[in-house]
Fold this sequence. Notes:
Blueprint: H1 5-8, H2 12-15, E1 20-29, E2 39-43, E3 48-50, H3 58-71, E4 75-79, E5 96-103, H4 113-120, E6 128-133, E7 141-144, H5 156-161, H6 169-189, E8 192-197, E9 224-231, E10 236-240, H7 244-255, E11 259-264, H8 267-270, E12 280-283, H9 286-295, E13 304-307, H10 312-322, E14 329-332, H11 336-348, H12 353-356, E15 359-360, H13 372-390
Parallel strand pairs: 10-11, 10-13, 11-12, 13-14, 14-15
Antiparallel strand pairs: 1-2, 1-5, 2-3, 4-5, 6-7, 6-9, 8-9
Amino acid sequence: MLDLMPSLKEWRPAATGQRCALATVVGAGGSVPRPLGTSMLVSEAGDVLGSLSGGCVEGAVVEAALAAMHDGGTRREFFGYSAEDAFAVGLTCGGELEIHIEPLGAAPGALRLESLRLLAGQGSASALALIRRVDAHGGGAVVIPDPASFQAEHSTELAALLGLTGLGAPAAGHLMLAAAAQLEPLLRGGRTGLVRLAPPEGCLSGAAVPPNAPTSPATVPEPVTLLVESRLPPARLLIFGANDFGAALLPAAQLLGYHVTLCDARPAFAGQSRFAGADQVVTAWPHRYLAEEAASGRIDARTVACVLTHDPKFDIPLLHTALGLDLAYVGAMGSRRSHRQRVDALLAAGVGPEDLSRLHSPIGLDLGAVTPAEVAVSITAELVASRSRSAGASMLAASLKDGAGPIHRTGPVHETGPIDNVNTAQHQETPWT
Length: 433
């Protein structure tokens, strides 16, 4: 749902107060175009905001949403691929989608269009989370304005969403603790995921089903299912070096959603108009600025540092500082010879081999990049690969046409050793100024 917030303010049905239904991907298998949590709004007039599959199933979802608004009930729709019926609604990519459809309403605790408009007004840079109940026996949502500090165990709104009203204190407390254990890591990490909990009646002593009685889908209650969408403020990307490569990387990094700071110690370089698009421009010695930002708590484990200065008097103290911090990524531009000299200097300065192993140098994936724009693509490609690796996917970058198996890999990481990557522009032995 949070993916629709930037466009909701300009969507005419929302502005005119039309009835709407919300369709959301709550299950995905195989190759699918959009991930869990992707949503689409459908108005009573059939207008649409958003997309769930790139066109494969939208028509059928609109019909189901209109039917849900007519009868007022939530529903689930399943879409896959039918080799027997070429004209059946489904995903030609072979994947499977489970879509939860809920009319927006005015009932207590229900998700309302007015609430969504308020969320949209907070801006995409603010922290925000939404917890929605998406099982067959519940609905509604809880808005979390500060997901990093939310205490699920003590939330009366969450208790109401889980249907704990009237439940005994021990059973309610047990379910709230179970909810907190699963919800809070997603909220604090800014992630999207499904949380399944035993239904309230499942916490009541178990007398409803005798210990050795046979069970069936009718006797096993459906778990309470919550869809969690959490958004943290944008991660920071710090570009050190006001040069052609920094100018090219700046908009490319913003395209990935980073809050970009350009830092250079030379006022005449940092003050150029081509860097005005940065979220922040700082004129300071890079290592001092980074140390001050770390001491003030303005960087975290999602922060990226790209050292493009290519000058030892800036690079060495800056990398010494950066490698001593818990950053998501530290990369430095330069040739192989520059890298070897850099490593020797950092070892002499007391940086250990384990910290040095975190340094991406030469920076970027081996794409044969030459121009500043191409090098920017190479760097951002490595950032995406690095983020995927931390999420459990392989760091190896290869053409999709040469691979096999699923496109979106979420399995365990298989280490294959360091990648020998270098951009053509960085391989030149003459330092830039």
